[in-house]
Amino acid sequence: xxxxxxxxxxxxxxxxxxxxxxxxxxxxxxxxxxxxxxxxxxxxxxxxxxxxxxxxxxxxxxxxxxxxxxxxxxxxxxxxxxxxxxxxxxxxxxxxxxxxxxxxxxx
Length: 107
Prior knowledge:
Residues about 105 have low confidence and may be disordered. This protein has one domain (about 15-95). By secondary structure, the chain is mostly helical. Helices cover about 65% and strands about 0% of the residues.
């Protein structure tokens, strides 16, 4: 866990938001090296978790949870932080209009 300086909490929040958005977009839309992420989405679909791998907003919650677990000390209010970062990632995606979405892809 990285120490969080008290005077840069806004910087950590913004960094967490951008990291969650980028990781979510990577997992939801991109093939990745050797098409590993595409294979991961196929594997999720085979076990009935198709929406987790293709729905940006669903995936943003899980990615945000991972980011918060890695960056922040776990407290009761961490749940609010997870939802805030996931919400910021979703708002960013909506504002960008899903520009990273491949042709014909959708939720």
